[in-house]
Amino acid sequence: MDKLKIENFNLKFDIKNKDLLVWNNEIIMSRTEEDYFKKMFIILEKLNLCANSILEIGFGLGISSNLIQKHLLPTKHHIVEIEANIFKDLLVFSQDKSGVVATLGDWRLTDLPEKEYDFIFHDAYDYGAISEYAKFSYDDHYLIFSKILKDDGVICHPHFGDGPVRDVPGFKTTIVERLKVSPITMWDQSICEDAAIVLRRKC
Ligand SMILES: C[S@@+](CC[C@H](N)C(=O)[O-])C[C@H]1O[C@@H](n2cnc3c(N)ncnc32)[C@H](O)[C@@H]1O
After folding, report:
1. How close is the Cα of 81 to the center of ligand 1, in Å?
2. By the 8 A CB rule, do 146 and 53 touch?
């Protein structure tokens, strides 16, 4: 892993509005994911997970941030966003929410407290096309998660399609539910109507 990389940047988006973020001809986030996320957080609320201290990676359109506030009621909701214009939207979001802490940066290069989080929602678009964007492997991400997650904490990330969910060393993976969702326009404009709720716990 290469740590000598920039910690935030300012992009020129092809499209940036309340429903869509497009950069480099790729959809970073689209409101078409909202139905999936709404269903996911309603189900997560019913699981009664401990979610006092939450880390959310990537603000995007703020859809999951709003749902986390509504369904998981965290005492502390730390959101890390790498892109400066999206970060401005995050600052607006955080203004009237006492427990929200907003950080501009690359979460992998940010000094995050050890064994702090009950729940981590990881939904970061990979800016691999930018040479200065730090390259970390999937397993590297989980090495960081294992340090900052509480021993009984959980990690959740979107899973698109009806295919298998990859295993991660040191974590037990649970597919809580497979869902049919309203059509989602993916990064490459393809359409997806299957999704899953995936949780990972330390083992
Ligand atoms: C798919 S969007 C997140 C969508 C969000 N969950 C929502 O509901 O709108 C991905 C976000 O991750 C941010 N991001 C990408 N890499 C990141 C990194 N290394 N650290 C922090 N944020 C990152 C992007 O700028 C973008 O805002």
Report:
1. 6
2. no
